């Protein structure tokens, strides 16, 4: 599923979005989320605070928008020639990213500035889209493959649940074991 | 796992906790979370704002504390005489509570005012404790039973992932299907 940009790419609106997103990322890197304000972001992005309020509502919604953009996969999953290998590699990388301090912070941002659940739904759609590519490749190779919903429940959900709720060490072996328990 | 109270039950400290928690719940019921402030909560609870700040830090942490208390199960899961029946009933009720508007709001509160992950961990510990009771009963009946971690990954995680990330209708049949796919 292609991401639907809120704006024409290349227009003034896209430039504003890019400079505000960049400003948020720079300020968070420099000084963390604590104490971040819309006027600080606006000053760094060289726009007025009202531009930010008009477009994003408040700081939480802006942080959520930045988070969803950061959680967007950069490329389709690599083709390793077999579903198990594709899923192993993808699940390991997904867990590694999501369980990192930056990943955890982005997930929380995406969830918290999200009155209508749209951002969280977008995060989930990214993962579903990646799985779908791998499952369709498997079908083309005539490999037996589970359904998309089953793969979401059995591979993505446990990893995300642990990242959010269970402060346990999350290893590549854990990611691989979920894949192995899913496949025949 | 018994909840560890932050204070001696029955002391002044416990009375303050109870009246502040009650004040939060009343105010949220009456007017929602938007615009809620610590001074408003303190006034309703007849304590000073500094009492609240000293004990809870800020509004987010207070909301998280109230949420975790609300998510605490009130009783051990019912004994239906067979693991499948126990898990069906428990999963249906768990999903029903978590997917309700109040449940979703409490989960978000618990996650967002949670700098160290302690509240989210407590929510997860509640679910794990309930599953453990059912799995131990199954062992006493000599029923075959999965491990606790597998049950968390296969039943609790998919429900919580969908509640948080996937705006799809969540039915009792879905909860039961997760149990059926877990059991032999």
UniProtKB/TrEMBL annotation, chains A, B:
Pfam families: TetR_C_11, TetR_N. GO terms for molecular function: DNA-binding transcription factor activity; transcription cis-regulatory region binding. PROSITE patterns: HTH_TETR_2. Gene3D superfamilies: Homeodomain-like (1.10.10.60), Tetracycline Repressor, domain 2 (1.10.357.10). Residues 14-74 form the HTH tetR-type domain. PANTHER family: HTH-TYPE TRANSCRIPTIONAL REGULATOR RUTR, TETR-FAMILY TRANSCRIPTIONAL REGULATOR. This is TetR family transcriptional regulator. It comes from Streptomyces tsukubensis.
């Amino acid at each position: 599923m292609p991401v639907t940009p809120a704006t024409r790419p290349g227009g003034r609106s896209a430039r504003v979005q890019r400079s505000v997103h960049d400003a948020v990322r720079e300020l968070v890197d420099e000084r963390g989320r604590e104490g971040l304000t819309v006027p600080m972001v606006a000053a760094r992005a060289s726009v007025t605070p009202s531009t930010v309020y008009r477009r994003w509502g408040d700081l939480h919604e802006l942080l959520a928008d930045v988070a969803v953009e950061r959680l967007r996969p950069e490329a389709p999953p690599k083709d390793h020639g077999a579903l198990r290998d594709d899923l192993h590699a993808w699940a390991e990388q997904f867990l590694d990213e999501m369980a990192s301090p930056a990943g955890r912070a982005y997930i929380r941002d995406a969830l918290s500035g999200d009155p209508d659940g749209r951002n969280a739904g977008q995060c989930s759609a990214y993962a579903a889209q990646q799985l779908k590519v791998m499952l369709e490749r498997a079908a083309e190779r005539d490999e037996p493959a589970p359904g998309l919903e089953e793969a979401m429940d059995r591979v993505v959900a446990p990893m995300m649940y642990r990242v959010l709720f269970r402060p346990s060490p999350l290893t590549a072996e854990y990611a691989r074991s979920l894949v192995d328990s899913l496949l025949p």
